[in-house]
Amino acid sequence: MCLICGWVYEEELGLPDDGIPAGTKWEDVPMNWTCPECGARKEDFEMLAI
């Protein structure tokens, strides 16, 4: 979950529009990726257990 805006990355959905296929684990998301809602960096995210 993004600590800036609260947007949640869901591994099972991925982000196909950003080139991240469904099923991509969070640790495999590129370090230079940014939040699609607010532009925060990957380091501004925290694991959220649902």
Automatic annotation (TrEMBL):
Keywords: Electron transport, Iron, Metal-binding, Transport. Gene3D superfamilies: 2.20.28.10. The keyword Protein biosynthesis does not apply. One of its GO terms (biological process) is alkane catabolic process. Residues 2-48 form the Rubredoxin-like domain. This is Rubredoxin. Signal peptide: none annotated. Binds 1 Fe(3+) ion per subunit. Its cofactor is Fe(3+). Pathway: Hydrocarbon metabolism; alkane degradation. One of its GO terms (molecular function) is iron ion binding. Involved in the hydrocarbon hydroxylating system, which transfers electrons from NADH to rubredoxin reductase and then through rubredoxin to alkane 1 monooxygenase. PROSITE patterns: RUBREDOXIN, RUBREDOXIN_LIKE. Belongs to the rubredoxin family. Fe cation binds at C2, C5, C35, C38.
